[in-house]
Amino acid sequence: MKINEILTPSYTVNDAQADTKKAVLDLISKLMAQNLADVEYKQILECLISREKLGTTAIGHGIAIPHGRIKDLFEPIAALIHLQKPVDFDADDNQPVDLLFALLVPEEAEETHLEILAAIALKLSNKKLRNKLRSAKDSTELYQLICSE
Asked: Does the 3-148 domain belong in CATH 3.40.930.10?
């Protein structure tokens, strides 16, 4: 799987503003709902909040991967967000989160869901890449960095 198969420049935001976990999930939901004809903002938000209630999607080092399966979604989509200021995401390492890679997959795509999550977690475990993403000048550079590494 290549990142650019599930992530587009329109779903990549650098220097986003949100001051709580709920505000971040709201931002992600609004962003992803913009271009989805069959999936509404509220459906995405409820999916992401429900997943967070099961346990944090923060994976450490200031990164979270909010994710969920959505009815009426036909293919996996992703969003990449770099926050201006990190927010508490209940991470096991107690570090606030400033890099978020959100993933939505079709409801029945359980195996694909897990494969993509594993690939993203592995990619974002690279400290050099994380530092580059945090230093991106704008959303275009952020997108190019995540797709090229």
From this structure: yes
Share of the chain above pLDDT 90, in %: 81
pLDDT bracket for residue 72 (50, 70, 90): confident
- Whether residue 149 is predicted with pLDDT greater than 80 in this model: the reply is no
Q: Is 98 exposed, middle or buried (0-12, 13-18, 19+ CB in 10 A)?
A: buried
Structural contact between residues 39 and 106, judged by C-beta atoms closer than 8 angstroms: no
Which stretch of DSSP H or E encloses residue 56?
A: none
> Out of 61, 67, 82, 113, which one is annotated catalytic?
67
- 39, 113, 123, 124, 125 from 119: Cα distances, Å: 25, 10, 6, 9, 10
The sign of the torsion formed by the CA atoms of 127, 80, 95, 138 equals positive
113 catalytic? Reply is no
Report the C-alpha gap between 34 and 52 in whole angstroms: 22
